[in-house]
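Researcher: Here's a chain I'd like modeled. Treat it as a single chain, no partners, no ligands.
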Amino acid sequence: MPGANASSGSPPRLLAAGARRSRLRRAHFRPFSDTECCTVTIRTLVPEGTGTIYLAGNLPELGPWQPDGLAMTGEGRERYAEVRAAQGTELEYKFTLGTWDREALGPSGTAPPNHELLIDGDVEASHEIAEFKKDPLEYFADWEGSGVLGRLVYWADVESEFLGRTRHVEIWLPPGYDAVRAVSRPLHA
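Model: Modeled as a single isolated chain. Structure tokens:
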């Protein structure tokens, strides 16, 4: 839910989804001078008890696109962040709890597309986040409640000298896998 443009009282221009998305992926921003600089204030309401919220996006000060790009200020349910960008910048951003595994979810319970905002002056945008993705370890603990047929095997925090950071590995075994071990089965990664 975008807020009002702080300088004119008119709503900020949101970018149309889809039509301009391929061009936006190139992190379109311009260096700015003091005369053309704009302040972007992004506010959000989060669930009670939520820890640090991060703003990730296509501006250098937002990572760029690092899930822990810029820690938002505030406590309780209200958080905000301010960034500066040149007039004409096409800003894209998302909210996380510091990792992409803990991204903010939309009303449908899925990760929404990037929030998009065309900076045409000082702008303020407001959002409300109902929930974030659960910690992957919570999903691992309750895989049977997911409705998956067969069996899921999870290995948490697997280290690899080739992949860098540790990762969680999920292995799905089809129904009957344990009963017939001699049968060769394809690997789907």
